[in-house]
């Protein structure tokens, strides 16, 4: 590609001599004698480089420079100043000029500047291509699903990617796609130029979180031999993803709160306020409202984080999305393991739809990966599914045959009471869940799909009806 250069100078001799010299070097050249013509040429001729004289007859190059940049942000402007006019040169650089050159100049200096700019352009082009590649990667990983609850999530991602300053709180059980959603919001926002930085508050020792996040000054504590910048500083201009936010230590919460309010923070051991431009995305699978009740999470921080909440539904609430995702992962793993499995039998689909998917999409993904590796047949049948998923068929929309017979016959006994039957069944499952969860009420309630409060009430009713001492 021939580089296009525009020379803007009111002195004809300079325009012509520079034009001839640069043409001989193989560049395409256009010239302009006034600011107005220059702006028109920037629009029509679309130069990559503009040599702009600072003192045009009756015009100031410093006024024209921003107008050029307004037309085309990418065009590189080199200003030509009188020897020693360093103030103008500095001003021009501040306004976005690439460099300056003193008049009268040597052709060799001009050539060097052009070389530097073209190298820069090549680099930018490379970055552009890499970004395109990255975008393709992002689109490959797009969030699958058609359920209305997922459409709501996708709409929010769309809105949030256009509002790149809004704090986001992503909620959802483990494996529902919180990481995926955080990446999607970042990668579609204008902040995507730099990578999103993530800190998992549950995965690093609590005493390290503050310095990881906010950095520290030299000698802030024993072993702090040098100043270290934290994630919040490194990610300036980008997004910081605070995963498992419920694990953020109580004593650190005011610092994050201050940052969300004032966009400023201090390094550990530092006095100076550091201001950065960052979007915070937080995520949790914990019940934050309960953590507030238990005084483990600050209510004011909760409100500051919860500006726009995104709720990811459990997989079992997403209906046919289960099959869409299963087919998607089947396709993915067929490619990866060079297999040609065509799909699922009706019975297998039924089991997938009935199973509870406590590990959500991650569990489904792992199950499909395992099956694709192991199965040799054309279609995946229910028998190919792990036992716990297959078992959903016998309890999902009814009961096993023998259990059904037993229940049917009860109806014909005198004294049958629906209320007692239901109560027996409730008591049975509560007992089972409590045993399974080692008497942990919170876990058992989650397993039973009821609130902890509802579980306590039922335990009182069924097991402590007489002495009420739970
Ligand atoms: N809607 C979806 N479409 C396609 N893939 C998905 C979807 N949701 C989740 N996944 C995939 O499921 C896996 C788990 O998702 P992710 O890690 O985002 O979950 P998470 O909610 O962050 O889990 P955790 O709470 O354990 O951190 C990932 O491999 C992710 O790519
Ligand atoms: Mg996650």
Give an overview of the whole structure.
Helices cover 51% and strands 14% of the residues. With 470 residues, it is an alpha/beta fold. The protein folds into 4 domains: 4-125, Response regulator (Rossmann fold, 3-Layer(aba) Sandwich), CATH 3.40.50; 141-313, Rossmann fold (3-Layer(aba) Sandwich), CATH 3.40.50; 316-395, Helicase, Ruva Protein, domain 3, CATH 1.10.8; 412-463, Arc Repressor Mutant, subunit A (Orthogonal Bundle), CATH 1.10.10. The strands form 5 sheets. It has a 5-stranded parallel beta sheet with strand order 2-1-3-6-7, with helices on both faces. Strand 1 (4-8), helix 1 and strand 2 form a beta-alpha-beta unit. Helix 18 (418-436) packs across helix 20 (452-463). The termini are far apart. The model has no long low-confidence stretch (mean pLDDT 89). Bound molecules: adenosine-5'-triphosphate and magnesium ion. Residues 143-145, 172, 174-180, 285, 325, 361-362, 365 line the site of adenosine-5'-triphosphate.
How many separate domains?
A: 4
Largest sheet: 5 strands, parallel
CATH class of the largest domain: Alpha Beta
The CATH architecture name of the largest domain reads 3-Layer(aba) Sandwich
Overall helicity = 40-55%
By CATH, the superfamily of the largest domain comes out as P-loop containing nucleotide triphosphate hydrolases
Secondary-structure blueprint:
Layout: E1 4-8, H1 12-24, E2 28-32, H2 35-45, E3 49-53, E4 55-56, E5 59-60, H3 61-71, E6 76-82, H4 86-94, E7 99-103, H5 107-140, H6 148-162, E8 168-171, H7 178-188, E9 197-200, H8 206-214, H9 231-234, E10 239-243, H10 253-262, E11 264-266, E12 273-275, E13 279-284, H11 288-293, H12 299-305, E14 308-311, H13 321-337, E15 343-344, H14 346-354, H15 360-374, E16 379-380, H16 387-395, H17 401-410, H18 418-436, H19 441-448, H20 452-463
Parallel strand pairs: 1-2, 1-3, 3-6, 6-7, 8-13, 8-14, 9-10, 10-13, 15-16
Antiparallel strand pairs: 4-5, 11-12
Adenosine-5'-triphosphate binds at residues 143-145, 172, 174-180, 285, 325, 361-362, 365.
């Amino acid at each position: 590609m021939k580089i296009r250069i525009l020379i803007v100078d009111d002195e004809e001799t300079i325009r012509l001599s520079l034009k001839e010299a640069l043409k001989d070097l193989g560049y395409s050249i256009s010239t302009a004698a006034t600011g107005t013509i220059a702006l028109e040429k920037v629009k029509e001729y679309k130069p990559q480089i503009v040599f702009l004289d600072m003192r045009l007859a009756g015009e100031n190059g410093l006024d024209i420079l921003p107008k050029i940049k307004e037309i085309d942000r990418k065009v590189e402007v080199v200003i030509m100043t009188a020897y020693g006019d360093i103030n103008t040169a500095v001003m021009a650089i501040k306004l976005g000029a690439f460099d300056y050159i003193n008049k009268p100049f040597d052709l060799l200096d001009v050539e060097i500047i052009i070389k530097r700019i073209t190298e820069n352009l090549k680099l930018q082009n490379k970055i552009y291509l890499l970004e395109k590649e990255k975008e393709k990667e992002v689109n490959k990983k797009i969030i699958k699903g058609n359920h209305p609850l997922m459409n709501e999530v996708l709409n929010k991602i769309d809105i949030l990617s256009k509002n790149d300053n809004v704090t986001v709180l992503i909620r959802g059980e483990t494996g529902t796609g919180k990481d995926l959603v955080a990446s999607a919001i970042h990668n579609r926002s204008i902040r995507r130029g730099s990578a999103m930085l993530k800190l998992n508050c549950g995965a690093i020792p609590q005493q390290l979180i503050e310095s990881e996040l906010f950095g520290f000054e030299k000698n802030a504590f024993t072993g702090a031999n040098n100043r270290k910048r934290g994630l919040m500083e490194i990610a300036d201009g980008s997004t910081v993803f605070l995963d498992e936010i419920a694990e953020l230590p109580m004593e650190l919460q005011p610092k994050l709160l201050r940052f969300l309010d004032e966009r400023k923070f201090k390094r550990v051991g530092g006095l100076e306020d550091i201001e950065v431009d960052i979007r915070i995305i937080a995520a949790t699978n914990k019940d934050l409202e309960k953590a507030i009740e238990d005084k483990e999470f600050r209510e004011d921080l909760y409100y500051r984080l919860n500006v726009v909440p995104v709720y990811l539904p459990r997989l079992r609430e997403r209906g046919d999305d289960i099959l869409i995702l299963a087919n998607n992962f089947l396709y993915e793993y067929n490619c990866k393991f060079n297999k040609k499995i065509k799909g699922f039998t009706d019975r297998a689909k039924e089991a997938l739809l009935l199973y509870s998917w406590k590990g959500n999409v991650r569990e489904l993904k792992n199950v499909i990966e395992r099956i694709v590796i192991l199965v040799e047949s054309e279609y995946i049948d229910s028998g190919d599914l792990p036992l716990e998923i297959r078992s959903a068929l016998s309890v999902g929309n009814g009961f096993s045959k023998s259990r059904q017979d037993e229940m049917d016959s009860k109806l014909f006994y005198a004294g049958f009471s629906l209320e007692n039957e239901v109560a027996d069944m409730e008591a049975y499952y509560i007992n089972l869940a409590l045993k399974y969860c080692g008497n942990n009420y919170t876990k058992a309630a989650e397993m039973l799909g009821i609130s902890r409060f509802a579980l306590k009430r039922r335990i009182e009713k069924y097991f402590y009806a007489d002495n009420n001492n739970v």
